[in-house]
Write a structure and sequence with these properties.
single chain, 7 strands, Ubiquitin-like (UB roll), 26% strand, globular, alpha+beta, 88 residues, two-stranded antiparallel ribbon
Length: 88
């Protein structure tokens, strides 16, 4: 599935979580639990949709998603930057 961030377009690998894909491609993403409990990984969703196997315990707004536990349903556009952009 295609993911469009502020700096890059990439494809999620088969059975890869959105959080894993963001890490693999060098994006800056905060996280703690990787299970939807804490909400530290919440990011803004600009376009596309996700679903959750179980409703996460962390709170998030209607325009936010939790990349640690969401299932990408269609191509996404999200507000996340590459780590190198933040360091430079």
């Amino acid at each position: 599935m295609q993911v469009i961030t502020e700096d890059l377009v990439f494809e999620l690998e088969e059975n890869e979580s959105l959080l894993d894909g963001l890490e693999r491609t060098g994006h800056h993403i905060e996280y703690q639990c990787r299970s939807g409990y804490c909400g530290a990984c919440r990011i803004s969703l600009t376009a596309g949709s996700v679903s959750y196997d179980k409703l996460p315990l962390a709170s998030f707004r209607s325009n936010e998603i939790l990349p640690c536990c969401c299932r990408v349903e269609e191509p996404l556009k999200i507000k996340v930057h590459l780590l190198s952009k933040l360091q430079g």
